[in-house]
Amino acid sequence: MADRQEDQEQQQQQHGVQLDHDQFCCSVCLDLLKDPVTIYCGHNYCRNCIEGCWDREDEEDGEVSCPQCRETFRPRPVLRRNNLLAEVVEKVKRMGPAAPACAGPADVPCDFCSGPSPDKATMTCLTCFASYCPSHLEPHYSIPALKKHRLVAVTAPIQEKMCTKHNKLMEVYCLQDQQLICSFCTANEHKHHKCVPVAVLKDKTKNQLVSSRKNLQEKVQQREEELQELSQAEDSLKCCAENSLKDCDRMFADLISSLQRRRSEVKQLIKVQEQTAIAQVVELQLQLVEEITKLKEKDAELEQLAHVDNFIYLMQIFQSLSTSCDSPELTPGPLRSLSDVTDCVSELRDKIELVLKEIWPRITATVSYVDFSLPPAPNTREEFLCYYLPLTLDDTSNYPYLYLMDNNSRIKPFLIISPAHPHRLWRR
């Protein structure tokens, strides 16, 4: 059975099923998980590693946290073994140790690796003042004397944590000079300064870090709310601009339509007046032609009488002819010009231009002013009343026994007479 399982594992490796060694390392000891447990936030640790971290925290206030995401738990969770993860770790162990990672430019090299390419250091011993890769760190887990050494995860070269003057670990913080110093510095240069151990400031710094993070998260939440309000203001502005464009187009279209209608009316009136005046002129022309014909006929008769010798007969006939020659005046008066209409239209144009000159600056100024600033939250009754809007009820979805009144702003119930008790009025 064991041989079959090994064959299956070999086949998986041959088909490319590889397990990453670093994915199953504890973030505290940086080694493969031993007796792995999973806490509530989902991170995995060695049981001894996480219990050791929580034992130091639990002594203070009974609250523990995840070393990776810093999520806090109260009360202290009960740890349970992650059986599935333990089986995967065992498979990783059987696959052999992972190839050591060479130290890059940004990594801390192992102090005990020989050769031109040392491996990447994962832990620093504050007792030995040296950094170790996983292979050279193994004696610190197996030799009893080395187990008592203080191991911390590598964050920077150990030389940066040493006092350059005394070559000692800087474990004291000078409050006056605000710098890390070693124990020898407290007896010399910082003798009369107020100094505290770094371990004492750890909890204070941690609390300040938690407080700063909380303030930062609150600020992020506030900025996210402001961003959401700005997005809503942007949507509202777009909707308002679209509605304003539609309203302006409609009103300008109405104005243009009104002017075009008035222009058509004026043109029609001018044409009607032109046709009426032309008809009168034609009628007068016909009358004048007829009158001229009659006058010419009388002129011909007078010419014939000029050759008559009987003077008495001539006087009698001429008297009647001179009487009949009188005719009414048919000559039309001075024609009235249509320039008066042009003057009226010109006056209308000038008045419209004057109104545009007076109103247009107000329109452009109103359009140009767009306030993106967010108004402060209302605190007083007067500030709340700035957002007051009258509410109206929908008569299409009205309950049948309710009566809307005061422009659909109030409701009055109907009074119904009960058939069983006619003397009672039921209010619905």
Automatic annotation (TrEMBL):
Transmembrane segments: none annotated. The keyword Zinc applies. SUPFAM superfamilies: B-box zinc-binding domain, RING/U-box. It holds the Pfam family TRIM_CC. Keywords: Coiled coil, Metal-binding, Zinc, Zinc-finger. PROSITE patterns: ZF_BBOX (PS50119), ZF_RING_1 (PS00518), ZF_RING_2 (PS50089). Residues 158-198 form the B box-type domain. Residues 26-70 form the RING-type domain. CDD domains: Bbox1_TRIM8-like, Bbox2_TRIM16-like. One of its GO terms (molecular function) is zinc ion binding. Residues 202-276 form a coiled coil. PANTHER family: B-BOX DOMAIN CONTAINING (PTHR25465), E3 UBIQUITIN_ISG15 LIGASE TRIM25-RELATED (PTHR25465:SF5). This is E3 ubiquitin-protein ligase TRIM47-like isoform X3. The lineage of its organism: Eukaryota, Metazoa, Chordata, Craniata, Vertebrata.
